[in-house]
Amino acid sequence: MFAFTKSAFFTATAGIASECRRTLKGSGGSAGHHLLPQDYQPQPGTGSIRFLWRRDTSQPPPFTFLPSHPISLTATPPRWRRCRAWAGRELVRRCWPPFARSCRLLPPARPHVMAAPALTFLRRLCWRSLCEARQAQAVCIPAVHLHMTTATMQVSQKDFEKAQEQLKLLKKDPGNETKLKLYALFKQATEGPCNSPKPGMLDFVKKAKWDAWNSLGNLSQDNARQKYTELVSSLISAESAGQTKDASPEESRHGGYETIIVTTKNNITKIMFNRPERKNAINHQMYREIIKALHEAGKDDSTIAVITGNGEYYTSGNDLNNFANVKPNEMEKMAKDGAVLLKEFVSSFIDFPKPLIAVVNGPAIGISVTLLGLCDIVYASDRATFHTPFSQLGQSPEGCSSYLFPKIMGLAKANEMLLFNKKLTAAQACAWGLVTEVFPDGTFQKEVWERLKAYASLPKNSLAVSKQLLRSMEKEKLHAVNSKECEVLKERWLSDECLNAIVSFFQRKSKL
To answer: Which residues form the ACB domain (predicted)?
Structure first.
């Protein structure tokens, strides 16, 4: 704890204001004259100081501060003296002139919430200064909020180029939808409105790019630079906030996977779809990694295996971007290779020797739904949905669903799902026999994993033998059904109906 005096207060606040004035002096600005400290309120026992600023009304300021705008800071006077010069310069550099006459600071609506990324520098400036001084203790400014008016902020060419460099530092693929938006904004910012001829219908990639760029219309280059920079900033922030926590010491994490996370703990091997930015859509790499993970889980010392999703979705099914980079003269090869991969993928579920449990944490679409018939237990959150839009996409059933769904729910209900694209709620899926049990979303993970731990404590050889007795009589039939479904799908992927459906999908996605 420290004694914070009136003198120390003005040393800190006036120091920042003087740096504002010094920075602006050469450019004819005078914003620093409007940043006047009014008072301070020590918070007993915490070492925290609440600063009160007032507005200098002698002339119209570029920043309109309300008369008493509180800013709470946690720092000792020596630290503030150390960083005040940098803070003053940074305040001016970030806020003058882009925000001039277009923003004002308002009293906080909620504590500990930053209302706009534009003011995150107020957190960073203190943190960076303290780190440089090797006294890395966080400085908290929870009460700063920004209200934007209709005026547009301008981004300099330097900021635009900096955003391009930052984009290269992203570790995770932001997804094709976001990449299309970035491409369109970049082209609009550098070349203006779309002026290139429209590509052919079967050139999926070029057509998607053209549609994305063309959809921006007459958006000005300045606004396009602004939107591009904001989008890159949001991607950087999201990646920093969403970094996956390291596995706990008791949990063994399997290496060699990029699109899934495979861990073993308490005799349970968990396979988690891990493309949350793409709603866990299954691309070719994920297909191969799941095949590998199931093969290894079938031979390891675990008792049961669990499949679930990371994020809001269980999985959105087959990633249609698998078709995006295929040239027209390679369509037949794509269809043939895709059928071979799908057959191997489904076979890995048919042949899995241990109890396989699906923990459906959110919406499930396509192949992820049809595979549930090959799982031994299916637990679902009450916010999960189940959708098989095969005819809508010009395709046909897969995952042995053409055989298993009529057995599970009856032919009439199977027709509703597989022919007419009926989407089921978790409760409906349970009533129809596709789901074993539904849990409230708030307690879903806790309740389900308590049961799974109990299942994993059972004798594993007994479980494996019992599963083989239950499944062995149908294995040959399931493999035959899988082969037939893949042959039909290979033909459907080359049909005009399927190609038109894929083109329509990309056209919808390109309307950003």
So the answer is: 156-241
